[in-house]
User: What shape does this take?
Amino acid sequence: MGATPTRACRPRCGSRRTDATVILQLAQHGDLDLDHPVSRYWPGVPNGNQITIEQLMTMHSGLYNYSLSESLNRSIDEHPTRSYRPQELLKVAFAARPEPKPGGAFEYCNTNTVLLGLIAERLDGRPLAQQFRERLFAPLGMKDTLMPPLTMSGLPSPHPQGYMYGTNVSTLHTERLPPEELKKARDGKLKPNDVTHSNPSWAGAAGAAISTAKDMATWVEGLCDGSLLNQAWQRKRLDSIISSDPNSPGAAGYGLAIAKFGPLYGHTGEIPGFQTFVGYDPDKHTTLVVLTNLKASPEGDPPATEIARELIGRIYS
Assistant: This one.
């Protein structure tokens, strides 16, 4: 690859929504309807006759987020190079919450994204990685971006190392280190763990992609300027954004698998070892990409998001 690659995204809180863009392309072509129940496209989803494709994309499905499973996170800690099939991840989610209630409050859920990826494969007939390459990456000229094979651990060389404090299990409910460990980290006596060579397949369509800062700038601009959808569907996507928390004035907006942070459209993403922020302001043609090779600070803050917040404040002051 021509530039230094890094993980484009993460599984627990967000990622670049490439698979959702494929879903919108399929809807634009008439291959599915966002108002249809997910049961029409994928069997076995709990309450799948009530959950719509749109609710999967806007994070209102009510499905359980499999990446919050303690048993799955323990497995990832104990077997970091193991690969996970998307169907395995759905099994974890469906067992944990067998009676989801769609249409409630915003609840970020990687299960939604993995499920959308499987639906895209079924409708298109091609592997998701091939669809990403042919539908999205190649048309935008993203030569340093790929969805890796299921069995691939680590990153193509050359690459940065990725770090995280603690383990997947110890950081499951809070990224902030316990007081004693936090003090050691602040004093430089506790170092983060190198998790570069972990297998990202458990993130699946929700966060396993690999990219570079330059390609991610190209991606977020294409996401917002209509390069990948026709005018009507692009407008529908951008107009779908509402507050993710109506009770919090500063909360990010979220719509059809796209977020908005102030004037910037884009997404955040993290996977153990890396954290990402990408945003684009179509009015001012301002692009912001922040990639960090640390999942969270000792205090539990997402470093790329915090850097982006500071930069946005300065850019728009």
